[in-house]
Amino acid sequence: MKSLAELAAIREKMKNNVVLREGSGQTRIVVGMATCGIAAGARPVLNAFVEAVNEAGLSGNVTVSQTGCIGICQYEPVVEVFEAGKDKVTYVKMTAEKAKRVVDEHIKGGKVVEEFTIGSVK
Prior knowledge:
Strand order of the largest sheet: 2-1-3-4
Order of helices and strands: HEHHEEEH
Helix content: 40-55%
Distance between the termini: 52 Å
Largest sheet: 4 strands, mixed
Number of helices: 4
Low-confidence stretches: none
Mean pLDDT: 88
């Protein structure tokens, strides 16, 4: 059994993840987590977005959540980014490393990472 202090530390760490997944930020990052997405590696992508947003101190402005099938299974893992007043951006064939770059360049920097978008897939 864990000590009370260890359990409190685990609770605090996980609380940040829950807030990110259920928050009400102006920017929403939505990861497709249907069977096809999970099989293609969407779970590590979701976790990487949660960690990167938290580490960047953006949890007040950015919500990371999951959804079911987005409908383009051949491009999984798929991530959609919704920002107020802007067009939706769809990132495809995502990895945890790509997720961190999207947070740095797109979410923080305001520049879409074009090479990861559905329009750039060959």
